[in-house]
Write a structure and sequence with these properties.
The protein has one domain (8-122): Aspartate Aminotransferase, domain 1 (Alpha-Beta Complex), CATH 3.90.1150. Helix content is 38%, strand content 21%. It is built from three helices and five strands; from the N terminus they run ααβββββα. Helix 2 runs parallel beside helix 3 (101-122).
């Protein structure tokens, strides 16, 4: 008898159920915004966090610091997207930092725009 296949959605939910992070509620808000920004984005656990892709990996949350949430935009095309929430001067990535519930709420509209633009430039 074959073992039932676990979907990416089930894997993400199981990961979230076990997550111990002081900004877990804010992560859920950010995830909802990211997922709503583009209907074809796929979510899975990669690098021990929710990660998003279409034809290629685009961005991944990083929760290693308990005082913030990082959203790492690691597709090289992100350098074409200008935004005050994107930090860093690397040749192939940018990072959005979220350090409080207020900062998450304030940056949601811009995050939505950045995700839409990042998907557009990565998948012309």
């Amino acid at each position: 008898m074959s073992k039932p296949t676990v979907t990416d959605a089930e894997t993400v939910q199981a990961w979230l159920d076990q997550l111990d992070h002081p900004m877990k509620a804010e992560l859920e808000t950010l995830r909802q915004t990211v997922r709503a920004a583009h209907p074809l984005l796929l979510e899975r656990i990669k690098w021990n966090a929710p990660s998003y892709n279409l034809d290629a990996d685009l961005f991944t949350f990083n929760l290693s610091n308990k005082k913030e949430i990082r959203l790492v935009f690691h597709h090289p095309s992100i350098v074409q997207v200008a935004s005050p929430i994107l930090e860093g001067d690397w040749k192939d990535r940018r990072i959005a930092f979220f350090r409080s519930a207020a900062e998450v709420a304030e940056r949601l509209p811009e995050l939505d725009r950045v995700v839409r633009e990042a998907v557009r430039v990565a998948n012309p």
